[in-house]
User: Fold this.
Amino acid sequence: MIGVFGGSFDPIHFGHLRPALEVLQALDLREVRFIPLNVAVHRAQPAASGSQRLGMVRAAIDGQPGFVADERELLRDGASYSSDTLVALRGDVGPQLPICLLTGADAFRDFAGWRRPAEILSLAHLVVMQRPGAGEELDDPRLRRWVAERRAEHPARLRSTPGGHILFQDVTQLDISATGIRALVRRGVSPRFLLPDRVLEIIEREGLYRLGDPP
Assistant:
């Protein structure tokens, strides 16, 4: 069973890394693949280039067993859709290996509006990372129905099928954002201890997120 964690990672920080590690351990995943997006669909485009963001991901996860950088979205032209990525990944790993798509609780609330959500559920399980004790405020009726029909109460349930279940997994949620880190750098304030030192070294060496860069 493998995990897939996509995002802009602009830059990657401890708010990404700690929850991913907890999911890796709680679900006993073989690996978690960090996949930087190429062209954002529902957010502003990344400030750092794809190669810079991939380099930061590789620096951040270096030495952590089970963490893997995957550049497939950066190699694909056009908008980065989870459904396309999962189709390609399924072609690599075969039809039977369970795939777990990691997503935050806020993003999950919009899942019904993602491109081809039913296909995503046919290709992978959804693992919704949330703070302990968080409630499930789901406004979309399709999303409520999917949760009612597909909810897994225990991680072991995900091993029985290649995809199709929804698991709500408690994780430590750190109040860190890439937007906030970029804002600190633009103001000339160090973001140290919000992200790995090796990522900060890349930001400083490449002159990323300085005054005049997009927010």
Notes: The chain has one domain: 2-176. The two ends are 37 Å apart (CA to CA). Strands lie at 2-7, 31-36, 67-69, 99-104, 125-130, 151-152, 166-170.
